[in-house]
Amino acid sequence: MDRGAREVWEVRNEPASMPHPMHLHGSAFRVLSRTGSPDQVARLALDDHGRTAGDLGRKDTVLVWPGETVRLAADFSHPFDDDQRYLFHCHILEHEDNGMMIGVRVRPRSDRLS
């Protein structure tokens, strides 16, 4: 993606799973919504988007419960001229080691012809 990109990611957890603390290195995001939350999370919602008090403000980690989808808004603006790499992964070490991790490359904007 190009530097300055603003993206919305949907992070889904399988219903027959466990909670996954998903972490983004080097950047922050905002939690836009939670859907499919288990009762113990849904009853803590502060707004119509299912967000809890812990979801407010800028985050680098979000806990995604079984059966839940969390929408995140990530802003990849940075002042660097070169490529930047970010890592998004589950904070449970065994999960990260077994592939629950992705690298995100942000490159300088290229001049494009219209």
Fold blueprint:
Elements: E1 6-12, E2 20-24, E3 29-35, H1 39-42, E4 58-59, E5 61-64, E6 69-75, E7 84-90, H2 93-97, E8 101-106
Antiparallel strand pairs: 1-6, 2-5, 2-7, 3-4, 3-6, 7-8
CATH top level assignment:
Mainly Beta
Poorly predicted spans: none
Mean model confidence by pLDDT: 88
Structural class: mainly beta
| CATH architect. name | Sandwich
Estimate nothing, just give the exact number of structural domains. 1
Q: Order of strands side by side in the largest beta sheet? A: 1-6-3-4
User: What proportion of the residues form beta strands (DSSP E)?
Assistant: 35-45%
Number of strands: 8
Radius of gyration: 16 Å
Order of helices and strands: EEEHEEEEHE
Q: Main β-sheet, in a few words?
A: 4 strands, antiparallel
User: What is the helical fraction, as a range of percent?
Assistant: under 10%
What's the tally of helices? Answer: 2
CATH homologous superfamily classification: Cupredoxins -  blue copper proteins
CATH topology: the name is Immunoglobulin-like
Shape: globular
Terminal CA distance reads 18 Å
What does this structure look like?
- By secondary structure, this protein is mainly beta.
- The chain has one domain: Immunoglobulin-like (Sandwich), CATH 2.60.40.420.
- Helices cover 8% and strands 39% of the residues.
- It contains two helices and eight strands; from the N terminus they run βββαββββαβ.
- Strands 1-6-3-4 form a four-stranded antiparallel β-sheet, with no helix packed on it. Strands 5-2-7-8 form a four-stranded antiparallel β-sheet.
- The longest helix has 5 residues.
- It is globular and about 45 Å long.
- The two termini are 18 Å apart.
- The mean pLDDT is 88.
